[in-house]
Amino acid sequence: MAVSFRDLLDAFEFASFGAPYEHEAYLCRQSGRIYTHSEHTDDVEELPEDIEDRDKYIRIPHKNELDLGRPLVFAFIRERLPDELHEVQRFFSKRGAYARFKDMLERKGALKAWYEFEAEAQEKALREWAEQNSIELVIDYCEGAP
After folding, report:
1. How far is CA 17 from CA 10, 83, 113, in A?
2. What integer pLDDT is reported at residue 104 of this predicted model?
3. pLDDT tens digits for range 2-30
4. I need a surface site. Which of 24, 48, 52, 111 has the fewest CB within 10 A?
5. DSSP 40-72
6. 70 and 62 Cβ atoms separated by less than 8 Å
7. SS3 for 11?
8. How many C-beta neighbours within 10 Å does residue 141 have?
9. Phi-psi bin for 18: left (phi > 0), alpha (psi -120 to 50), beta?
10. Is 144 helix (H, G, I), strand (E, B) or coil?
11. For residues 35-62, b (16+ Cβ closer than 10 Å) or e, as one string?
12. ∠ CA(128), CA(102), CA(90), 5° rounding?
C-alpha cells in the first residue's frame, strides 16, 4: 500500500487542527484511502464501521503526538531567538499562547522563518512516522515545487 505524501500531510494537518481527537484522520492500510472525522461538522464522510480494526486502519497522529506543539516552539526559540525564551515561556503559561507567540514573531520579523521551521519539522516527523508504521509514501508530482 502506498499513499501520496501530500494526501498524508493534508490528513495530518486536518487531525492536528484544534485539540487532540477533535478531528481525526485514518489511513486504510489496504487501499491507501484516508478517512476523516470531526466532532464539529456534519459535512465530513462517515467512518467505516470497522475503523477500530488496527490491522486495517491506522489513526494519523495529532501534531502533539509527534512533539510538534510546544516542544517545537521552544526548539525554534532556542535556535533562532534565544533572548526571547523567557517571554515565550510566559506566553505558554496562559491561554492564547500561540497567538501571542506569532504576534511576537511578526514584530521580530521571524514569522516566515517560523513557518519554514515548522513545515520542515512536520515533514520530517511525518515521514519518520510513516516509515515506523510501514507506510510507503509516493512522491507527489509537484513535491518540493514553490
Report:
1. 11, 29, 21
2. 97
3. 899 999 999 999 999 888 888 999 999 99
4. 52
5. T-SSSPPPPTTTT-TTTEEEPPPGGGGT-SHHH
6. no
7. helix
8. 8
9. left
10. coil
11. bbbbeeeeebeeeeeebeeeeebbbbbb
12. 95
Q: Look up the pTM and report it.
A: 0.83
Query: What cell does 80 get?
Result: 533562532
Describe the crossing of helices 97-108 and 111-132 by its angle, rounded to 10 degrees. 130
- Grid cell digits, residue 51: 475503523
End-to-end Cα spacing for the chain: 28
C-alpha cell at 94: 496562559
Chain centroid offset of residue 110 CA: 20
Residue 41: CA count within 13 A, CB half-sphere: 9
